[in-house]
Design a protein that fits this description.
This protein is an alpha/beta fold. The chain is about 40% helix and about 15% strand. It folds into two domains: about 190 residues, Glycogen Phosphorylase B (Rossmann fold, 3-Layer(aba) Sandwich); about 160 residues, Rossmann fold, CATH 3.40.50.
Length: about 375
């Protein structure tokens, strides 16, 4: 079975990994990676190098990103991605192509495949993020897909409502958590030494723009900066940098300015990679920001999350998430509360066992039926 894997960022590649490792060693599959988006961007860590380390038989690369991140540039990147993939789909055929999540680049690649009758399998459909324009892209991808793997039954029902069909919609759990029970973090001393982290507690931070409130982002970025300046006086801060979203540079500039003001209290990371990111989460005191990993993964590490603003609004949450408005003082207060709480001992509603194996089983059954 010939499989294509669309990956446009460090985030979706990290989620795919358990599935890719199994497909790579299963003779039933002839798998090809299709890398595009920020993977090819040097300003975002050039994460294509991480994919190349995976020693896949075939890696296609498609460059279509425009460096600016204003509304016109994002729309232009979307259009350019569609044009590039129109050429790609014309000359490449697959039995099934995996797509994941809600990025605008992913949506563009999928939309280009519709006239070619490409069969897409969508992971993480049916979710809602009211504070991000990605909400629209995610549902576009769902409507263009033939096979659906959702993270909870709530999302499965949403996909059924969107597609008006019960066929080929499966609640499998979050793929990124597939190997979480057997995960072993990098040795603490080695991890701290590699990144020159002081021997003290730290908070793991990731902020992205609220792309449904573009006019508010300058204010939000300043609130983030001011709050982190105060928090870093008491607790060391590790920041993973924003993705290529509309006005992401507003947050980057605020973070980089903060680094110059507090050089010894912050560590900025462009791309950890999955193992190092999970290790950072494992050793962190808590998570802060508005990233999906706080919602999907942190509970499995026993971490509380201060989820700021509306970017993740609409996603169902485990009991470890403390929601907070995008305001300097509110962020400081809720972080202080979360630190007092210590470790989270509840369940992760996104966890199910054998996610990757279940997806493979379903894909093989799907292939037999077509």
């Amino acid at each position: 079975m010939r499989i294509g894997i669309l990956t446009s960022s460090r985030a979706d590649y990290g989620i795919y990994l358990p599935l890719l490792e199994r497909m790579k060693t299963d003779s039933f599959f002839e798998m090809e990676i299709i890398a595009f988006g920020t993977h090819l961007s040097k300003s975002h860590g050039y994460t294509l190098s991480d994919i190349e380390k995976g020693q896949y038989v075939c890696i296609h690369t498609i460059s279509s990103m425009i460096s600016n991140d204003n509304e016109q540039s994002i729309a232009s990147s979307y259009g350019l991605t569609v044009l590039k993939f129109a050429d790609f789909w014309e000359s490449h055929s697959y039995d099934l192509v995996f797509c994941l999540g809600d990025r605008f680049e992913m949506s563009a690649a999928v939309q280009a495949g519709i006239p070619f009758g490409i069969k897409f399998a969508h992971i993480h459909g049916g979710e809602t993020t009211l504070g991000a324009i990605d909400n629209v892209y995610r549902h576009q991808i769902t409507l263009a897909s033939k096979l659906h793997f959702t993270a909870t039954d709530v999302f499965r029902k949403k996909v059924i409502n969107l597609t008006d069909s019960l066929d080929d919609v499966y609640d499998v759990g979050s793929l990124s958590l597939n190997d979480i029970k057997s995960f072993v973090p990098i040795d603490r001393a080695a991890f701290f030494e590699e990144f020159n982290i002081p021997n003290e507690e730290f908070i793991l931070v990731t902020f992205h723009p609220e792309t449904m409130s573009v006019q508010e982002n300058v204010k939000y970025a300043q609130a983030m900066k001011n709050a982190l300046a105060t928090i870093s006086k008491e607790t060391f801060v590790i920041i993973t940098m924003p993705n290529a979203d509309t006005q992401g540079s507003v947050y980057r500039e605020a973070i980089e300015k903060l680094k110059t003001e507090c050089p010894n209290r912050l560590l900025l990371i462009e791309n950890f990679g999955k193992i190092k990111y999970f290790s950072a989460m494992y050793y962190s005191k808590l998570l802060l920001g508005n990233t999906s990993s706080g919602i999907l993964e942190a509970a499995s590490f026993g971490k509380y999350v201060v989820n700021v603003g509306d970017r993740q609004k609409g996603r169902i949450q485990s009991g470890n998430v403390l929601n907070c408005e995008f305001e300097e003082r509110a962020i400081i207060v809720v972080v202080s509360k979360a630190i007092i709480f210590g470790s989270y001992n509840g369940d992760n509603i996104y966890f199910k066992i054998n996610v990757a194996n279940n997806i493979i089983k379903i894909v093989k059954e799907f292939y037999a039926s077509i």
